[in-house]
Design brief:
The strands form two sheets. Strands 2, 4, 5, 6, 9, 10 and 11 form a seven-stranded mixed beta sheet that branches. This protein has no helices and eleven strands. The protein starts with a strand and ends with a strand. Helices cover about 0% and strands about 50% of the residues. With about 120 residues, it is mainly beta.
Length: about 120
């Protein structure tokens, strides 16, 4: 499985961005695709996840109500609205090739495949 993330950029507070993660290769082995972010000097943080087969969605507390994850047959999207300066980070998508539970879903080491990051900068 290979992941290719894109869509980052610079916006002002309150703005919107849409990130994309193209999923290719042995996609039949994928259980879920998640987005994580990492700000300078901070640990990697779970943002959102979507089941690759059933389409169930999950969100971290800090983005609930502002971010929406979706997917089509090849791509996972992260629509980010009402952006805040604290959303500034390097955003990366990751694929799980095993079933996820509420705990493992939010742990970076659960994921064996990672795409390159895309930088999101929100200015005040």
């Amino acid at each position: 499985v290979q992941l290719q993330a894109s869509g980052g950029g610079s916006v002002q507070t309150g703005g919107s961005l849409r990130l994309s993660c193209v999923v290719s290769g042995r996609t039949f082995s994928v259980y879920g695709i998640s987005w994580f972010r990492q700000a300078p000097g901070k640990e990697r943080e779970f943002v959102s996840s979507v089941s690759w087969t059933g389409g169930s969605t999950y969100y971290g507390d800090s983005v609930k109500g502002r971010f929406t994850i979706s997917r089509d047959s090849t791509t996972v999207y992260l629509q980010m609205n009402s952006l805040k300066p604290e959303d500034t980070a390097l955003y990366s998508c990751a694929a799980s090739t095993s079933a996820l539970n509420p705990l493992s879903r939010e742990i970076p080491r659960t994921y064996k495949v990672w795409g390159q990051g895309t930088l999101v900068t929100v200015s005040s």
